[in-house]
Please model this.
Amino acid sequence: MHKVLLVGNPNAGKTTLFNALTRSDEHVGNWHGVTVDAKAKEVTFDDQQVQIVDTPGIYSLKAMSLEEEVSINEILKNKDKKIVNLCDQNTLARSLYLSLCLLEEGCDVLLIANQPSLKATCKVDFAKLSKLLNVEIVATNLSKCEGLDKIRKKIFLPKKVANLPYFACFGGKSEQEKAESRYQYIDFLLNSCTKQTGEVYGKSKVDKILLNKYLSIPCFLAIMAGVFFLTFFLIGDFLSQLLGNALKVVTTPILNVVESWFGSGWVFDLFAVAVVGGLSTVLTFLPQVVLLFLFLSILEDSGYMARVAFVFEDLLGRVGLSGKSIYTLLMGFGCSTSAIMTARTMDEKKAKIKTAMICPYMSCSAKIPIYTVIGAAVFGAKNLWCIVGLYLLGIVIALCVSKVCDKTILKSDNQTFILEFPPYRMISPKRIARVLIKNTKQFVSKVASVMIATNVIVWVLSSFDFAFGYVAGTNKGSMLESFGKILAPIFVPLGFGNWAIVAALLAGVVAKEVVVSSIAMFNGIDAGNTNLISQSIFLSTSVVCFASKASVVSFLVFCLLYVPCLSSMAMLWQEIGKKWTFFAIFVQFCVAYVTSFVIYNIAFAIEIFGFGPVLCLLCGVGCVAVAVLCVVKKFKLKKGCSNCDNCRRCKR
Model:
């Protein structure tokens, strides 16, 4: 079997080519670090079996990060195999440096010159370049799938001996001298084979606003607020209602048949409440989940995500993280499990641990039903601001946790962050369709397996006692009620010491989507009627009943911050180890509890005394706290420190 390695700089198009050659759907993005591990797939070209391997991006054969080690090790183990080296035509000078390193190692290189779907910054004479290097070169436009047939055919061509006249001077030279020789030869190649068009790669007038010192963060917040408005209200709400009505039309005849067969006993309840009800509740929010993934993908592929990393690099550096962390954290808005995996691209171990630990504080798409249904009970049409506030609160809490860890047990070393600004690019409709289909499949498969199984377990525990007697419609307590009443007192200070609420939170540990379906199940509400679910949580006759609006706000905050789902826990275990996983879960629960307690008491005070007096009181407390901190800081400066000779503050 032939083995082919796809090798190149980050963001050169390796994964795009891998998907095109193997008809796969691996994640691609306009971002450094999207591919974090080698991926392989077997295909057939001209009746011959070929294994295509996609590797993380590298700039040379000297590893600068963990994912680069993956690529370099794979290359050095397979120097006798075909190496398909992708180069970006617009950054040919940098791309050719890796090409020369591969040729120096004696690799069998097929050079692919990819032209992205935008104006070229230079014109290249590929025939002359191929002759000078004595390697096969294929010019492509992968966004339009051009040149794929040529690539398939040239994979089987015999190896050529590269023409590298500078290479014979290498004996006894230092690494710096070798690098200088490569760059000199690249300059010769570019002067001989290219002509500049006058365009500047990656430069855009839009960056004067989006990267402005004062406007960059407000622009980011405005963009995210727009994403949330479209996702949860303007488009998402309409599509969710449409899908909910369609599900009613489909499920009602099925339930009628089940009732005619088994009557209205526990068998019917199992199908109506646990299976169909739980399925309908979660599927109703499918459009909003897919829309959120779609908008995040657009931001990433357009090139804006790299700018966001630059904007937040200084802020993240202050809390012991790196600009690379922003990709992981923003991915957490979609799914914490897949986001945690991307933390492995972090160069510094402690920064990686902190990034993975705080990723679950980001509000994942699984919590959308909770915010939409439960939040609407309190805020109604203004629920958008509640949702935006919860997302921002998650970010703030995550940064605070990272700062505390950085000052105590996870002090990060100095980190370097090298970032290339890719040009802004138009989004391909085909790419958008693939994103929609992939995320829809993932969500539906999760609903069809984990959600239904969890709903059935919750229904069984809430419908039968320990003697396995059916308790619906009786005064007997269920297994879940007995267990929930044991834990309920713990949550009384947070305003929701109700056994059914606690049981819904426990079910949410498996998957956060189950929280709303569990509440609907306990209250006996038609799962597709989200408005009725919202109204039921304030009815004294409901099993799940909140005492006040403040307790609902506290519940929303707790759902935002409490322990991650089981799949995220498993990914944390895999990426940062058992010890740090248990520590992260414990800290997250404590942070959720304390934050919910504080917010509950503030919200409860506002309900009683009004917003103005409480705001004045909080401002007063804040001023006192700032004054105390200033006094303590001044006292420490007068006292000096252990490094007074080298301390700038003490010298002043």
Notes: The first helix runs from residue 14 to 22. The chain has a mean pLDDT of 82. The chain is about 60% helix and 5% strand. The first strand starts at residue 2 and ends at 8.
